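Hi there,

I know you've been waiting on this one. I reran it after we fixed the sequence typo, so this is the corrected version. Both the input and the resulting structure follow.
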Amino acid sequence: MRLTFSFICALCFFWMSSFSQDVLYTVTGKKLETKVVEINTTDIKYKNPDNVEGPTYVISKSDIVLVQFANGLTQIINPNPPSVSPPKIEAVDYTAPKAADKPKPNLYYLNPNLISINALALANGDVTMIYDREFLNSHLGLSFLGGYNFNSRMGGLNAFIADSKDKAKKIFDAGLGINFMPRNTRRTQYFVGLLGKYMAYNYQSRVDSTNNQFHYETAQGYQLAIMITNGWVYRISPDFNFKIFGSFGFPVNVPELKSEYIGAPKVYLGYCFGYRF
């Protein structure tokens, strides 16, 4: 039992040590596995990760495209590297020689996260934020949306609720989507997927009273819809993206509505711009 526990600890140590190196990508396409100790205005200082007590090496920031840290974060140093190879730099490469240098990393696909705001929702009094996370080499993505409504009444795309409920007002909505990108190597990227969207709202419910008198009380309702989504992502720069999409489907719950609105479709549109990291 003690031997098994020691073996598991050794495996965990070697697994963690394999991810403890920082990587420098040079403008010539080289990848240097290092331990970065300082990044100043002009230079990057680093050490050999196998000898962190050894000498400190220095390389100019103009010779580096980006730094990929051991914790998974990436810092772009030179977003517009020259198209031709610069003069030979005085950098110490203590890794074993390779048959051929790897190509330069594509800066547009280094960051898998995108946080954006839906500009179309603003026209309806909504402040809606969307977070996207890409997986499987940008073939698969998850989307999370959340929004709060400041409008005094229900918006036009929810007219069937506004017409069936007295003084209906949306409070917030939330959603979860999964998207598939058939081609993952283009800066303009099409995607298709499914979106589940939840909307909470309140309205004035008429309550019977004595002597044929009525009064109103605030009540709450909700709607849950499943929709098919089609859209495009435009990678304007490595950090700035546009996304447009349209979702169409039907509610899976039927609140008390007028008969002509039962089975009415659900539409959700997005024109988003945001930051990729």
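Quick highlight: Residues 2-17 form the longest helix (16 residues).

Best,
R. S.
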